[in-house]
């Protein structure tokens, strides 16, 4: 079933549309994802055979590939937000879940690379929750 999604970066200069279906949704805790996100993990969706269209700001996208690995990130040069990567050689689009402006029908399916997670990543779900910045 083909789905339609929209997304953008934080500053709004880069926006996109994706037509396809997300087949996998992983929360990656590897050290590279922690470095690029500044958090405990990256939340990435994988859409094999999807069509990615940049609706604005393609000229603001920059790309980084980590040497000697398959790790890569596309991001807005203005605000630094991660944006999708069209991995044509692999036949899929990788979408940072946080870049989506549309809702998802899929839930995270796995936490991956837990062997290299940060030592502070244990029991994050036990921290108190607030609807806004606590005082």
- Determine the structural class based on helices, strands and strand pairing: mainly beta
CATH fold category name = Metal Binding Protein, Guanine Nucleotide Exchange Factor, Chain A
CATH class: Mainly Beta
Radius of gyration: 15 Å
Strand order of the largest sheet: 9-10-4-3-11
Q: How many E strands?
A: 11
Count of domains: 1
Shape label: globular
Strand content: 35-45%
Q: Report the total helices.
A: 1
Low-confidence stretches: none
Give the proportion of residues in helices. Answer: under 10%
Main sheet summary: 5 strands, mixed
The ordered string of helix (H) and strand (E) elements is EEEHEEEEEEEE
CATH architecture descriptor: Beta Complex
Q: State the distance separating the first and last CA atoms.
A: 45 Å
Overall pLDDT score:
94
GO molecular function, one term: carbon-sulfur lyase activity
Organism: Marinomonas aquiplantarum
Keywords: Lyase, Metal-binding, Zinc
Pfam families: GFA
Chart the SSEs and their pairings.
Layout: E1 3-8, E2 15-20, E3 24-28, H1 31-37, E4 42-48, E5 51-56, E6 61-65, E7 72-76, E8 82-83, E9 85-87, E10 92-96, E11 110-112
List keywords for this structure.
135 residues; mainly beta; Metal Binding Protein, Guanine Nucleotide Exchange Factor, Chain A; five-stranded mixed sheet; three-stranded antiparallel sheet; 1 helix; Mss4-like_sf; metal-binding
Characterise the protein shown here.
- The chain has 135 residues and is mostly beta strands.
- It has a single domain (3-116), classed as Metal Binding Protein, Guanine Nucleotide Exchange Factor, Chain A (Beta Complex), CATH 2.170.150.70.
- 5% of the residues lie in helices and 39% in strands.
- It is globular and about 40 Å long.
- Residues 5-121 form the CENP-V/GFA domain.
